[in-house]
Fold each of these.
Amino acid sequence: TGLVTVDPGFMNTASCESEITYIDGDAGILRYRGYPIEQLAEQSSFLEVAYLLTHGELPSSDALSGWIERIERHTHLHDNFKALIGAFPTNAHPMAVLSSAVSALPGYYPESVDPFDPETVELASVLLLAKAPTIAAYAHRRALGQEMIGPDRGKGYVGDFLRMAFQPNGTPYEVDPVMVKALDVLLLLHADHEQNCSTSTVRIVGSSHANLYASVSAGINALSGPLHGGANEAVLQMLTQIQASGGDATEFMTKVKNKEDGVRLMGFGHRVYKNYDPRAAIVKKAADEVLSKLGKRDEMLDIAMRLEEIALNDEYFIERKLYPNVDFYTGLLYKAMGFSTSMFTPLFAVGRMPGWIAQWREMMQDPATKIGRPRQIYTGPTSRDYVAAEQR
Ligand code: CMC
């Protein structure tokens, strides 16, 4: 093992070859299967992008409608599965509910766990995409102590997700098309991001030939951390605190730069982007437009924009190449839609689902795949002899 070198955080280790997502972090470029993220956000849709990521090509219009229809046919949850979610305390974090529910799925669909049968894998992929929003909507209602509302296929994937989350019990409810479009774009922007922490987790779990659900639920848990998907929740908490203490962005930034109590500007910085995250640029524009259109323009958006302006002109951030990442503005949109902060990371998970599935499928089909098993450099005591407890 003389050739083994330590690479903390895998800063310099490529764990695989992949045809799915291209990032040029210095230029701020992101492409799914070669298509620029800006074009997809403008012209495509979340489920079309989910097909693109998982199948490699954009679908024909027949293939697309077949794909959407198949997913929408499976959005319901069986009663005993609902009971499983209903057993959580109402103050359970929705990420705990989501990861547990996804872990439980293979128990309910044992016919879809063979990782090497293409039809089975397609079924598991469809089931995950179909069930994730329903589970997330139920987790949202659970936290509010509300009954679950079942899916209604005619409303569209994103529209019905919003309806399941927000329709008051027993009352008709029309989802705002502006919200539907905004959430569709947000989910699409999160759909894949190559070998980030959760996707690497999905791959390493799957490399042991664990089924797709087991691998994805591990990914959901990896996403929950504040340095990864949990950052969108942390951004809103940060903005709320700044607002509550008088809205002084400059004072907060001084704390960040002095690294007081390890405080970071959440939603800033990225392992790969050393330039403006192209997703953040799209979200910022959407937040500005959508909040104005809905008349929900928020003082916190102004605080966020002030923080950004200070950062982009400040030596600390410039020399470290710290720019807004995707999470900096997403929370403001989720909030305007009516989601509580604890739902922000589950929304990220619903969006990232196609990427986890696509990366897992690519890995399973790649003959070069081996079980993930990093090495280490041992730094503990050298050999020593056991001493009985009474002699220590
Ligand atoms: N605020 C203040 N300083 C920062 C920040 C920040 N947000 N991010 C990095 N730095 C500083 C860091 O202190 C270090 O400074 P120094 O050289 O003086 O020690 C330098 O920049 C390099 O940072 P690092 O932690 O070594 O960089 P990394 O590549 O290991 O971490 C990161 C990347 C995203 C974890 C980090 O930038 C961070 O913690 N950002 C805030 C959390 C966040 O927004 N995460 C979401 C990431 S994007 C979506 C996702 O993955 O879910």
Amino acid sequence: MNKKMFVVFFLVLSLFLFESTPQVGRNEVNTSIHNTTTKITYFNATRAFNLIKAQVEFGPRIPGSNAIENVRNLVVNTLSSSESWMIEFQNFSKLWVGNLNISLVNIICTPVSINLSQPYFLLLAHYDSRIIADMDPDPVLATQPVLGANDGASGVAVGLELGIVLREYHNISNFRIVLFDAEDQGGTGWDWIIGSSYFVSSGKLNLTDVSFAILFDMVGGKNAQFKREGHSYQHSKSLVNEIWDTAEHLGYNEYFIKEDLGKITDDHLPFIDEGVIAVDIIDDFRSNYKAWHTSSDTLDQISINTLEATGRTVETVLLNFESSNTPEITFTTSNSTTSINLIFVIIPLFLLTFIRFRRIK
Ligand code: 1BN
Ligand code: ZN
């Protein structure tokens, strides 16, 4: 009698354990959240190229110049013609050599439909260009300003185009585009990353609301080589891996190379210092981008293919990030078959066992 009871109980328990164990083939949707999935992307590299061209045509965008003021107007015109954006200018100033006071402005672009009770991500770039082309082999040209088609204009163009596409094609609003002044004047009497350092220390944004930040710097050069920047890889490894894996999945591995780049003092660093996940996508300017800080950083250096590789990779990363947060997909990760079996199979079997056990007694 005891034997019979034991057999029935054992059968029920085995069935319960079998049903509760996650099985291959059941959680395919769950798997696709964590792996890279290919989504339809809309990033328009030609539109990004035209935004670079417009900036370069203003001339060098040195802090405090008319040309850099023109970029601010370009940003306003570009976003107001496409969707509903709130554009804020964060004004501050800094003394230049000879006690000259220079007005500086960070630009913060926010979709009006942002939900500020939810976390949001940041798309970052600097919009100034360097006052001297001090890496130019020609000593005369080395005293002239840099046009910054790649170093300055490309990051702005990719950030704006991505913002437009996220809003218009994907209905994503939980992000801001922040464009920094005075990133690129280091070693000229000023330091590097003045705008982003001011922005972070000003407390303009509550950084605990920021899920992560992606910085675009020199993202349009022909045959660009984006390697894993040191600060990013040390502090934001999972996002770096997500971006570089996504690029590989999309066939952009000749641009996104899984090799290490040294640590670079760039606009992501003040964010990392405050504990924000932040990644710098930057061409290897030491060994690859020969026009870096020279008079040759001009429009002819820019490649539509590189812009497309950068834009579509990050667009895909952001879409995967967004879809992994949607309740529908979170719901499909739970194994609903187990709960159904629990109600209709396992509990009745337990009851039957119990009744049999009492009869036997
Ligand atoms: C990025 C673009 N940077 C300058 N132009 C950052 C940088 C700072 C690179 C210091 C090398 C040294
Ligand atoms: Zn630079």
